[in-house]
Design brief:
Number of helices: 15
Radius of gyration: 22 Å
Largest sheet: none
Oligomer: single chain
């Protein structure tokens, strides 16, 4: 069996966390060839075999998880509540948070169980899917390689689409600032700003070493906090003057898919869950209380509060980027827009590293070594142009958030984990519970995933066509 590998996982949050994320589409450990009967009588404990140079403590893993789940998506929650109404918005946000937590739990549990069967200390997302099918019933074993490729592609497309959201987010804020100080250019389309942003993005995304991105991570975190603090000040300071009769308890039912897709986009962080869990040497990630339950309880509470009070403050005019609702003529609001633009710009660089690194490792073997440097430069340029082209094609922030949430996160965050759990329980030691309630629950989640996929993308594209 392959020897344990040393992985570097910091105990506190730094940009190095992203290095573990790149393991998602790379074989961390080879699945041993053989049957389950070859396993020793003593149950294999993955945690006893993890050789992690800098393991994450309970608190360190908690910080990582909060960071991965709390991002710019929180700024879109007020518009999601505005689309659904107060009752559906609040209850729906809580239920969506519970659903996301549950599917993450299914994925992590499946990874731990399959590690015991395969006798390896840790597995990434794609490797977990591959191993679950490999050790599943004979009828599904031929689909093991397809399952791995499917998860790899889903991860890559999710990261690329998420970066396209960042481009729209940055350019929207820059456009508002420029329009205020230079009214003569108000007729400029947001795509002009994307073209201008393309140059610095191409240059900055040529950085290949994570250690060189550490200062940018610090800048991104600092400016993000400043922008959030200013936004919260405006959100809560003016809420007492709002006429609550203008706020809807319920809204048009056709807007629920947009609400669900937006919350799913904002809250889902399943791509980083296994790297965080793999960095721990004690079984503290799932369970009660567990890192996952504590972190997601805080995330769901925070998103619900921001969504509710953001809608109460700004009403139906709440933007997909709630910072856009701040008064353009006031200096603090301008500072918030500038800070969030800087933060998202550097976050783009960090998030770009992950799919770019995965893509390069997939194609590097086909490129002669003497051309590796040139090939990397060309690859990074092409990928940044590709991402920017997506943003230019779908320049409305609320539409692209709904599209990414409905298409990518419904598949990656809902559909794939329950399929993995279902295949896992189809094995000899599987258990669907009394009256197979776990199977029926999984079928319900799959239906919800497909509902989000088709209805969310349909209404998002319909909104885009109307625009």
């Amino acid at each position: 069996m392959t020897d344990n590998k040393k992985e570097k996982y910091p105990s506190t949050f730094t940009v190095d966390n992203f290095s573990s994320t790149t393991k998602l589409a790379d074989n961390e450990y080879k699945i041993p060839v053989g049957s389950v009967e070859t396993i020793n009588e003593k149950e294999y404990n993955p945690y006893e075999h993890r050789n992690v140079e800098h393991p994450n403590s309970f608190s360190g893993a908690l910080v990582h998880l909060l960071k991965s789940s709390l991002g710019t998506g929180i700024l879109a929650i007020p518009s999601a509540v505005a689309a659904a109404g107060i009752i559906v918005g609040v209850v729906g946000t809580v239920l969506t948070g519970i659903l996301c937590t549950h599917t993450i739990h299914l994925l992590v549990f499946a990874s731990q169980e399959i590690c015991k069967k395969a006798k390896v200390p840790m597995l990434g997302f794609a490797e977990t899917a591959h191993a679950v099918f490999k050790y599943g019933p004979k009828k599904v074993q031929p689909f093991a390689n397809f399952a791995k490729i499917f998860v790899d592609v889903a991860l890559l497309l999710t990261y690329y689409a998420g970066n396209a959201v960042y481009v729209v987010f940055i350019c929207g804020n820059i456009q508002e600032l420029v329009n205020y100080y230079q009214p003569s250019v108000k007729d400029w389309a947001v795509q002009y700003y994307m073209l201008m942003l393309l140059v610095p993005l191409i240059i900055c995304c040529q950085v290949r070493q994570l250690k060189h991105l550490v200062p940018f991570s610090l800048i991104a975190n600092t400016t993000m906090i400043i922008a959030f603090v200013i936004t919260l000040y405006y959100m809560f300071s003016g809420i007492g003057d709002v006429n609550m009769d203008d706020r809807n308890l319920f809204n048009d039912v056709t807007l629920i898919p947009r609400f669900f897709s937006t919350v799913l986009f904002a809250m889902e962080g399943i791509g980083t869950m296994l790297p965080i869990e793999n960095s721990m040497i004690k079984q503290q990630f799932i369970g009660c209380p567990g890192v996952l339950n504590i972190a997601m309880s805080f995330v769901v509470t925070l998103y619900t509060v921001i969504g509710l009070f953001g809608y109460l403050r700004f009403g139906d005019s709440a933007e997909a980027n709630v910072i856009a609702n701040l008064p353009a003529e006031e200096i603090p609001a301008q500072v918030a827009k500038s800070c969030i633009s800087v933060a998202v710009f550097f976050t783009f660089m960090l998030q770009f590293y992950v799919p770019c690194d995965i893509t390069w490792r997939k194609i590097s073997a086909k490129v002669p070594e003497k051309y590796h440097n040139v090939a990397q430069i060309i690859l990074r340029i092409v990928l940044v142009i590709f991402i920017t082209a997506i943003a230019a094609a779908v320049p409305k922030l609320d539409v692209i958030i709904a599209l990414v949430g409905s298409v990518f996160f419904s598949i990656l965050g809902l559909f794939i984990p329950v399929v993995i759990d279902t295949i896992l329980n189809l094995g000899e030691n599987g258990d669907f519970g009394v009256l197979k309630w776990r199977l029926w629950k999984n079928i319900l989640v799959i239906i919800l995933a497909w509902f989000a996929l088709f209805s969310g993308s349909y209404y998002a594209i319909d909104d885009l066509i109307e625009e």
